[in-house]
Amino acid sequence: METKTEKTIIVNNRKVDSVVIQLNKAQLVNVLFGVKGVTFIGADTTTIPKMNKGGLQNLNYMFDNVVKDSIVRCMLGFDYEKRQDTEASKQWVKDAVDAAIEAGIDLETIQKSVASLKEYSTQSVEKFEAKPRKWGKHMKNPETGKVSRIMIDHTKIDKKTRQLLPETYARYMQVEILGAKSPVYRYKDSGEVLSEKDLAIVKEYLQPRKDEPITIRDYSIENIKNIRINKQNYQIIG
Question: What is the distance between the alpha carbons of residues 59 and 74, in angstroms, rounded to a whole number?
Answer without folding.
Answer: 35
